[in-house]
Amino acid sequence: MTITQLQYVMAVAEYQNFTLAAEKSFVTQPTLSMQVQKLEDELGVLIFDRSKKPIKITEAGKKIVAQARNIVNEAGRIRDIVDQEKGFIGGAYTLGIIPTVMPTLLPMFLKTFINKYPKVNLIIKEQSTESLIRNIQDGHLDAGIAATPLEIEYIRERPLYYEPFVGYIPPNHRLGKVESLRPEDLDISDILLLQDGHCFRDGVINLCKASKNYSQEHFQLQSGSFETLVNLANEGLGMTLLPYLNTIELDARKASYLRHFEKPTPAREVSLIYHKSELKIQITEALRDVISGIVRGAIAFQDVKIISPVNKK
Q1: For position 45, what pLDDT does the model report?
Q2: Which among 97, 120, 129, 271 would be 20 to 30 A from 157, CA to CA?
């Protein structure tokens, strides 16, 4: 039994196809199939039912795959221990970032990080929170940046910053003349929302549920970008809520439409999340230090109230 054989088994389990698993593992299909067969012969049990299309994992195979993941992770820790002893911070590191954070946060820290840690090959992917969680569990991501708390057993959460919600309210809106907002001022029926699947959308819904003006039936206008929501609001189609970092570079006219909340300010917690096995922890800590140091200079808000990113049905 070898680590390589276990990695091949994990690939077949994930893709449910020997050819695709071989392609993703950068080996030929016959080589991968032979190694999986050798492991099955050694163990005296079938891991995969090849008679099904797509192939299925046997009941014994499910337990073997779960244990294989643990073994491969622990083997990776040996390399981490050596790197940490040498003080080495480098190698490939795959980071996922949710769509409502990536456009504002990435330009703030990326150049600083790659200049400070030139030996790290940082691979960045924009993914939904659901995809981040799944890919961290499967070992396809070393870490993610997402709105928290998520409270998932196998994931550690390290808060990076607390980002206030800010109202974007054109002057012709019913709240256009207020100087500051309260949650009870909000009416979900005239708030433009991100489309389903965005955790910031769920945060807005949860904030509105704290007011008397929440009704599940008003969800017609939805979009995939904050810029679109702002443009729709400017056309008199409602108001919207923005994360604070999305408001920094608005032009003077649009900035005049911003309204902050009274304290405690509703905010989202943005965290670096990673598997509890803490593989490549030295790079994770370096990334956290760089991001936290930069963002602290941009967000100076105190006295915030964290709004859950999970939609409470």
Answers
A1: 93
A2: 120
